[in-house]
Every structure is written in structure tokens, then in C-alpha cells.
Amino acid sequence: MHLSPSRVADEYEWVRDRTGVVTLINRVRDELGDAFETTVAEVTESEYRNEVDAVFANGNLAVNVAGLVAILRELDVDGDYPGFVIDELLGRELAGMIAGNQPLRLLGEATFHYADVMHHEDDEAAGVDDLEAALAAGFQTRLPGWKWKETESPFSVE
User: Which residues are CB-contacts of 23 (< 8 A; sequence separation ≥ 6)?
Assistant: First the structure.
């Protein structure tokens, strides 16, 4: 695979146009909100696209995100199950990369596995469902809507 600025732009357009991910983001937020007894704001397609823009505006992040997106879009394994580890590994990494620095990175990675269990695409390559779960997990983690993210941490040292 060769990554060039034009290939990164192509992957950016693919991710930006994949607005069905917003439905998965909101399903994940609903279920996690119920599990943690909190209300989590829904994400709109516009918020998703704006955040995709922010991720791809950082060239160093964009090239790495684009590389993982491209691999997962093409990844398919005969019988799927033997490839279970590689698509999980790549999906988890992509979710964490999109989510941001710690602790958001770890939350994105953990949320990936939750989103992946909820989501399956039978009509595309095996890696696409992991890709969409990674996009949902990463973007839902970095987007506002969680109350704990909207307040100052009581653990900051002056």
C-alpha cells in the first residue's frame, strides 16, 4: 500500500461520508449511558463530520488514521474467524488513535470492543465492521456529551 496526500484525502472523504457511523455512535452512547446511569448527548452528522475534519486536519494523525482505514477497508479473511485477531487489533488501535491522548485513548480502545459486538456488516469485507466500530468508538469518545468531560478534574494540582 502506498500512502500519498491524495490517498489520505480519499480516505478522509470515505470516513467523512460514512455517516451511518453516527447511528452506531448514538446506540453506543445510549447503552453506555444506561450502564453508567447517566444521560449522554446524541451526536449529529454535522458534529461527526466536523470532528472528522479536525482529525484529518492534523497531517501526522491523518496519515496514520488513513493507513488504518485503508487496511481495514480491504481486510478480509476466508471464513473470517481466523482473521479475528488482526481486525480487532487494527480496530482497537484506530479507535484509540481517533479518541486522543490518555485517558481518552484507553476509553476509545475499550469502547471499540463494545461497539464491535453491537455491529456487523455482512455485505462487505470482514474488516469493515471493525472499521465502523472503531470510527464510532473513537469519535464518540472525543466528541462532547459526557458530563464528566465537561467539568474540571478535581485531581488537578495547582
Answer: none
Torsion sign over Cα 129, 31, 52, 90? negative
Which triple of cell numbers denotes residue 1? 500500500
pLDDT 10s digits, 96-128: 999 999 999 999 999 999 998 887 666 666 778
Q: How does DSSP assign 53-66, residue by residue?
A: HHHHHSHHHHHHHH
Contact (CB, 8 A) for 96 and 135: no
- Residue 83 has φ and ψ, to the nearest 5°, of -95, 5
- How many C-beta atoms lie closer than 10 Å to residue 31's C-beta? 14
| Of 27, 55, 35, 39, residue with least CA distance to 148 | 39
Q: Which residues contact 82 (CB under 8 A, 6 or more apart)?
A: none
Query: 131 and 72 in contact (C-beta within 8 Å)?
Result: yes
- Each residue's pLDDT tens digit, 43-99: 999 999 999 999 999 999 999 999 999 999 998 877 766 667 888 999 999 999 999
Distance of alpha carbon 66 from alpha carbon 15, whole angstroms: 9
